[in-house]
Automatic annotation (TrEMBL):
Pfam family, one: MaoC_dehydratas
Organism encoding this protein: Nocardioides psychrotolerans
Family affiliation: Belongs to the enoyl-CoA hydratase/isomerase family.
First and last residue of the signal peptide: none
Domain MaoC-like positions: 21-116
Gene3D superfamilies in alphabetical order: Hotdog Thioesterase (3.10.129.10)
Matches recorded under InterPro entries: HotDog_dom_sf (IPR029069), MaoC-like_dom (IPR002539), MCH/BMMD (IPR052342)
Protein name as annotated: Acyl dehydratase
Top-level lineage group: Bacteria
SUPFAM superfamilies: Thioesterase/thiol ester dehydrase-isomerase
Amino acid sequence: MTLTPAPFYFDDFRAGQLFLSQGRTITETDLASFAAWSWDTNPVHTDAVAAAAGRFGRPIAHGLLGMSIAMGLASRIGVFEACSIALLGVDDWRFLRPVLVGDTLRCRVEILAVRRTSAGDAGVLDRAFAVLNQRDEVVQEGRIGLMVSVSPARPEVGSAG
């Protein structure tokens, strides 16, 4: 029997909550696929010979690949899936360390603040993301706001319901 976690809604989140994702190992295929669909074929990502002569001695992952994987890892946590309405923005994102083929990334999400929208029918989560490698070093970090639905059992404030 597989247990499915109860869906989270706006009312289930509190400032200070921490969530940690499972890990995902970065492969050469990840770099090649991202380069193909993004058209970012900078040699630092795609040319092993050129990258060997560069600062990191081998190809590094695209910064936005790391951010994209962080979003996917956050969704795998399972608490944002049922309630997500819209991504509101990415703020203060920083690329602190290179992500290399063979690195295993995890995503830590902290709820910084929660507030209802002015209409009262949804909420906003201010979330801090930290992308961690296998040594628990933060390789990327930033804030990503998310609009979420309120529980159907707890309708909007002021509803005639």
